[in-house]
Amino acid sequence: MAAAAGGCVPVRVCHQEIVKFDLEIKAAVQDIRDCPGPLSALTELNAAVKEKFRHLRGRIQELEQMAREQDKESEKQALLQEVENHKKQMLSNQAAWRKANLACKLAIDNSEKDQLLQGRDSLRQRKTTKESLAESASNITESLMSISRMMSQQVQQSEETVQTLANSSRTILEANEEFKSMSGTIQLGRKLITKYNRRELTDKLLIFLALALFLATVLYILKKRLFPFL
């Protein structure tokens, strides 16, 4: 009885420490389940959980040793039953710990994959942007070349127009010179008509000749202007 009474305090303390470590392990397992990463953080949490399991296992062994040292069989069996319950709870916590690690590692792997895919998408977007810029530059260059060709054609057309106007100007000058020559011929005919006015037959002949010359000149000019191919 004295041994049993003396062992009540250590048993109670050991039991309290077991409960404390059990609660701390459950909280640590939840932290592992919620851990966003990286793997180094998960490693630190697992190291802390291992240490708590080591302390918990030691306290359970101490409680089992105390139970076997009890004088009363009823107290011995009661403590051994508590030890068995604590062992089962520890096994449950270990299973939950393994599941939390698997879930956390899976979440970290998925996160790393997402980051990798985002990096690839970013590279693909940059590549697409570069290709778009190159295509835009090529289109701008092609447009500038097209404008340059159009301007060259316009300049060529302008040169042809200027040349046509120059040819027309020369033609008008030539016609003016011909009309001046025809005017001189008419004046000469008038002088002849005036000079030989009194001589009817001669005058008529001269007038006829002058008119014929005039008409011939006019016909010649008209022929030159209207029928240049004849």
From TrEMBL:
Claim: Glycoprotein is one of the keywords in the record: no
Spans through the membrane: 205-222
Gene: BNIP1
Subcellular location: Endoplasmic reticulum membrane
Family that this chain belongs to: Belongs to the SEC20 family.
Protein name: BCL2 interacting protein 1
Keyword tags: Coiled coil, Endoplasmic reticulum, ER-Golgi transport, Membrane, Transmembrane, Transmembrane helix, Transport
Entry membrane topology: Single-pass type IV membrane protein
Sec20 C-terminal domain sequence ranges: 136-226
GO biological process: retrograde vesicle-mediated transport, Golgi to endoplasmic reticulum
Statement: the UniProt record of this protein carries the keyword Coiled coil: yes
Listed GO CC annotations: endoplasmic reticulum membrane; SNARE complex
Superkingdom of origin organism: Eukaryota
InterPro entries cross-referenced by the UniProt entry: Sec20, Sec20_C
Pfam families in alphabetical order: Sec20
Organism of this sequence: Phasianus colchicus
Chief location: endoplasmic reticulum
Molecular-function GO terms, alphabetical: SNAP receptor activity
Residues forming coiled coils: 46-89
Taxonomic classification: Eukaryota, Metazoa, Chordata, Craniata, Vertebrata
